[in-house]
Records
---
Amino acid sequence: MTGSTDTTERTDPAPTPRRRVSTRALVLTGILVSLVLAGIVSFYASSSPDGLESVAEKQGFATTAGQHATDESPFAGYGVAGIENARLSGGLAGVIGVLVVAAVAFLLFRLLARRKSQD
Amino acid sequence: MHVPDGFLDVPTSVATGVVAVAGVGLALRGARRELDDRTAPLAGLVALFVFAAQMLNFPIGAGTSGHLLGGALAAVLVGPWTATLAITVVLLVQGTLMADGGLTALGTNISLMALVGVWVGWGVFTLARRLLPKQLSSVPLAAAVGAFVSVPVTAGTFALLFAVGGAVDIPLGTLVGAMVGVHLLIGIGEAIITALAVSAIIATRPDLVYGAKPLVTARTLTIREEQTA
């Protein structure tokens, strides 16, 4: 792994005949797909109780769920407080959620990867 | 499968909190061995994709839905330690920003989805990979098997926790049966989504897929040989 401190990210072990998708293109495509899923497709997701909620209802312990401590969050319940339109409210909350996860995760994993290459 | 506040009593929640902190602490060390400058962006992508995919509840009949847990998917793509961290980041954002999953249940949710889900998924994946033909196309299939098994096991683990410190007394067998039964169906959805997502990365950049490493190395050597000849 000598030369991995180089500014370029490419460390092709062997160039394949087929043109390879760059990491940047792959990640950007993935982000775009995820934004569409969270921002648009999520509106069409099932609103039925999920597996745990459904079992809790049938077994009679659903009511033991407490008030959520961050119910006052502007994005509580995957909606933006104050926006009436469900499609817009849910989609916007989804997009913001994806961006927050992205910010935390890219930073965290970059730091962890960096620290390793210093060893 | 996000556990809200109140389902489990304080001692049980504290215990799962300790398990979660220990697990994430180990993962912070372990992930450094899995990650490098090349794969770190994929790890970030996995986290945000799991967040987005978890918003997409799919119906499984009888007025019930399920969504991706993502543990097996993340483990196969970026390695189990890194996956533990990726799912933890998703759960932290969901619990604080979206009020999805209780704050006192954060330890429980991390223990269930970021530890049990990830490591059962990874363990079953590696077993399946060993049994399947030594080729890249086996990776999505093995990932699907790992994903399928991880969901009912995670659900069953919740039932065990509930038997220890649940808000009400329900016979263990009844709750395990109910949780595992429903989540076997959700596991099918988990397997399909996982297979599709892993296939997409295998088709474009197999060299980035952690769970495909043994197979990619073998293939690279063959190509090199052909070119030098």
Note: Chain A has a mean pLDDT of 85.
---
Amino acid sequence: MKPASFEYLRPESVAEAVATLDLYGGTARILAGGQSLVPMLGMRLMRPGAVIDINGLGEELGRIEARGSETTIGALVRYSEAETSPVIAERLPLLGTAIRHIGDRQVRNRGTLGGAIAQSDPTGEVALVALTLGATVLVTGPGGERELAADGFFVGSYANTLGPEEMITGVRFGVVPSRSAFFERGRKHNDFAVLSLAVVATPESDGTWHDVRIGMGGMNDTPVLARAAAERLEGARWDEAALAEAATLALRDADPPEDVRASAEYRAHLLPIHLGRLLAGLAKEPRHG
Amino acid sequence: MDELIEITVTVNGTVHREQVSPRMHVADFLRRGLGLTGTHVGCEQGVCGMCTILLDGDAVKSCLMLAPQLDGREVRTVESLAEGGELAPVQRAFKEAHGLQCGFCTPGFLMTATALKESGRSLDREEIRDELSGVICRCTGYEGIVNAVDRVLNGDAVGVEDER
Amino acid sequence: MSGSVATERRTGVLGSSVPRKEDDRLLQGDGRFTDDVEPARSLHMAVGRCPFPRARIESIDVEAAAAMPGVHQVLTGVDIVARTEPIGVLRPVPGAVQLPFYALAEEFCVFEGQPVVSVVADSRQIAEDAVEAIWIDYEPLAHVTDTLAALEPDAPVIHPDRMESNLLASNPQHRGDAEAVLRDADVVVGDSFQIGRVAPLPMEPRAVVAEWRPGARELTAHVATQVPHLVRMQLAESLRLDEGEVRVITGDVGGGFGLKLGLYPEELLACRHAMDLRRAVKWVEDRLEHFRASTHARESVHEFRIGADADGTFVAMTDLYTTDLGGQNSGFGSAQLSSIVFTGPYRVEDGAVERRVAVTNKTPVGAYRGYGQPEVNLARETLIDRLARRLGRDPYELRLQNLLGADELPWRNAAGALYDSGDYAQCLRMVAEAIDYERLRAAGRGPGEDGRYRGVGFTCFVERTGYASAKFLANRGSRYGAHESVTLRANRSGGIDLYTGVSTFGQSNETAFAQICAEVHGIDFDAIRVHAGDTGATPLNTGAFASRTLIAGSGAVREAAQELRDKTLRIAAGQLSVEVEDLEVVDGAVVSRTDPDKRVTLADLHRAAIIGQGLPADEQPGLEATAHFEPTDAAYAYGSAAAVVAVDAETGEFEIERFVLAHDSGRIVNPGAVEGQVRGALAQGFGAALTEELRYEPQSGQLVNGTMLDYFVPTASDLPAVELLHTEVPSPVTPFGVRGVGETGTIPPGAAIANAICDALAEYGVEISSLPITPELVWRAIRKAGNGGESREG
């Protein structure tokens, strides 16, 4: 389990990294945290012509910035940093919670948020949160910078709309709803999810809920939004009937895979139950806090 | 032949300048390049955690980094823990709490526990288990390991017999 | 000389949790595992493997690979068949046709991962490049991966040259007439139980470093194995060498669990390359290879039946079971202990058990901690609970009614096993008391405030530890004995060097052997140095497996230590002019009990003996002793477990709230080490019961989860809290009354958890008949029961 040969390159700027990607015509891979890339190299499931190590670009890519209503997280910010960041705890509590379900301490010490988005694992926590919160993926390529909505970025299992000569530089979050909840079920501690769920919404004083978004991981070949379920709950009072209906509606946006972790049928069985419970828990929380 | 890359890395307090192949991971470099065979390789898939080292003070899996990535970094391995033949407190705790059997995973746990201790965090047993979940032990059932780390972090007596 | 039996405590070291001898080096990264050995200018081997479950090799083109810079040699099956002998099986299935296998496939491949080519190069990287450059044309052949499907008449026959079907052997045993008794029984319960295929998964992968000095005709093989002396025999046979030309060295081994038992193809290949190249050759298994080429375990189907009288008395048990061998034999062979303990600790006169071994196109199966005992335990113990439900009886009471009483032992079970001693019911009562069974029962099954149902599950078991005798083994075709041996050699520092062929892989043997030596001899524990696992330096022995090491080894250590002590005291008596009976060993010296001023240090005595000066006239120089010990019988460890489980009936998800095990391992040498062994085996038991399973996709015949990412081995956060209780009934058939302890924990988790879940969901009529018990499996069982299920009780 040793990698095939490749060039190892260490650019000194994002511009140089992108130029190098361009030079290799799409056969180069970006090495950020390396927690997925390095074993894939070893198993020879990936044979890039070059590996472009961007770990020296912390100045450009390693910051968590709160500016006005927006929060931008650099692609090289590591999970452990995000996990303990007061900015994220205050502004993006959903992200802070979800990250604790990723891998283990060692993996979180190296793995990066940009890497997670690029990996586009259908059960990835960061991708799920970015989708649920309507984040924007910041991308640089030979043609300059692009901004891609997370909604639409993930197009298949481990596939996204990033061009082969582009790299992710960060993720930007806007204002997020005031309440959030996260749930994950795996076959063992912090394993890839059988099912993961992220919910955000803002309760109003009249008892209705707004800005409802529900994300689902492990329920499709990408993280997906439960649009029909969210629609049912938008502007509604979350009584028992509404929650039950919404939980079932979530199945409309699900097309669960069958794998060694669970059958499609079981995933579909779990979805309304756990979503119903997650929503009920959120609805029951004190309305101020 | 692969093109070699020159790196300067501090390992256990000693500065090394070495030529490394990019298709060698850090664990292999420490073992074969520097002869520090205390860092073990258990899966090269980033799961088992045997190969955990401290990189600038953070616990990381050394099979998940390429050797050239060590340039300019500071590494500590299990060989750094004991001083002058005296076991470090974390090593003593593992010994007293029967925290090892075959000993293959032990360096991974010791380095993970060392980083935890240095973080200054106080953790309950469930949190300790979570922090240790990146290293797999197939011998002990983890109880002795958790007892040892609990003792290191929280100073508890764990009810095991001290040295005779 | 060694006639007296010394079991009184002299030093207090026996029975205490002394710090382990192994720890200091392992804690400092100074263990010496096989991959830590790297002779100068070592070369590295990589192995190309068959990607199909079954195939014929049409052609192999190695030209491009052999010409690559840095590549030294490529071997194919043709070379290996011409130049080596098949690998011998240490414990063949009794009554089976021979299925000899070579280290590389010549024409036919019978499992995914089977070695087909091997390459040696300057680095592992280059060797792997070269393996990729070898062009192999395969003709995929019809395959079968399911155990029972392999025995169907329409299944492709995997070894058509040697077998007419895929049934390798069938081994029936019986006592009485179980069928007749079942016909007349008031009630019979029965079902078919599927036990999942698992990986023993030691954390150190397999490894070998081979060196050959042609002028000396000496092959030195560093091998990560549990049985260096047996591997030496197998290597010599396969490489056509005299045993004297082969030295196997086993340093520290990073876990074995039965997997590192006997010679594997890669070890032989590295040696063959080293002999050809006159260079050291290293191979370290990677995890992708490990999941496909190291032995698997457990997979079997048990058709179990229990018959009982209306009052609950068990009258007969039968078990017709099929174990899955994989595509061919491993160096050790598949699990064989389900038969011997199938009736468990119960009073059952009539019984019949039949083991069938099926060949399938999967990785060969080998030994794994438990060796058949966890499998049969699930079948028997879940059926006992079903019987209780059928009779309206409490499963705890039903077990108490049928457990053998202490006064009924020794007792021979229907498979011929002789249970030596013990109080089985005591362990069951202890776990019931620990969980406060009465209170739990009174509280009802729920659902509780959290919406979950709560159930209690019990299981009782006996566990065969050690071997009855070499004769017992020989009758079954085993190619090893039942004895253990040890050499003790006094050194000039006043210490004792202890040499054992038992390698060190986590069982604390170095510590336990030194404890026994200190206890018998009187020397300080710290003054004993253990040297393990080098066939060039240790007496010929059997090896570390079958929970037999301590049983047989303690006898050998005791005898050798007694012999050494006797001679030491005789020399001292001469020097001090006192009677031997007046002397004792205290604090590194031999001292007169009546006149403590009369003393001579062990260092002085050892020097005198080694030089041969100052000895009594009739004493020979030298101070060392070698002893061999073969136990007369196997010892049966036993225990009971109780699990309390909370189940979510909507999702099938469940939580093990309590798990209590009470067990008896006889006299305990080192409580800390024993607890570690039990907890470690339990962790493996929980893994196999709850999460671990190697899955093959039937259509493609491919292993679908052969990585650490997809094989769910428990982490520190995945295991329930375990409460351990123990009794200490000495076994009458072993030295010091010890019983083996290494495998106990693997046995009870599956049955106790299955019973607890079914108890919790009794109102749904849920039944569990397979491992692992995943939430999805429980959900399916609930759904099936809800659909009216299907009564499979016969």
Note: The mean pLDDT of chain A is 96.
